[in-house]
């Protein structure tokens, strides 16, 4: 058999054995032939997905990625195979990598960092990648610190809850809205009314108006997550006061689990904006009781008193049912 045919057959066998495409297997073998010292240093067989991750492709919130060759060279060549648990040596045996990666989420995991890596003999298994999702979704109210404008060292604690509600739109339809109730749980001796008045000032400066004339709060948004993978909490909501950016989570007014009704989700549909209602704020130095979200009449009464603020904000319904975590290694 001609030499080039032997080489092609060897490349096919190498590709099949290590779960690579023919082109990637050919490139790796060509690199070894060009560098006789290569195998004495490392014999890592990388799948396309693993090689791309090590090169920083698709990673978010990561400022700089160490070159893959340098990262691999720093690792101790000897290892315990993650499959057969026998000793391996990347200098003399083809070795594959498994990566456990933090899956990106703009609200709770804005950086796609590597959590851990594992090694195995290439004969025991190919490369794999497992995307791990944060399972710590808060339950119950969100507690916020509200610094005093005139004295930043002085702060109140606010308890925030959210409630999905449906408001009649006057045309026989139901308008979905998100009611965000606020209570002062620690007033630092200043009284709850003073803090709620400051909250009102901040919300109006952000662009909030009234139920009859809602404003447009720049930077604010609402994201509802359905079918969140790898968590006991499949549904949660984030009310953001600042935009989401790679590497930096937004400032949340509320982030936590919730259970909206099917009617509310159906009414939201594919809406790009939602009415966000916040309150009650203080009225003439008094603090109204938080409204019953199911009592629409009470909401309108509070609005007439000036105790509620509202804004139309960008809305995202994120169905993550297609992003279930993959198994940690191929079967």
Automatic annotation (TrEMBL):
Regions of compositional bias (Basic residues) in chain numbering: 1-10
Domain of life of the source: Bacteria
Disordered: annotated segments: 1-20
Protein name: Uncharacterized protein
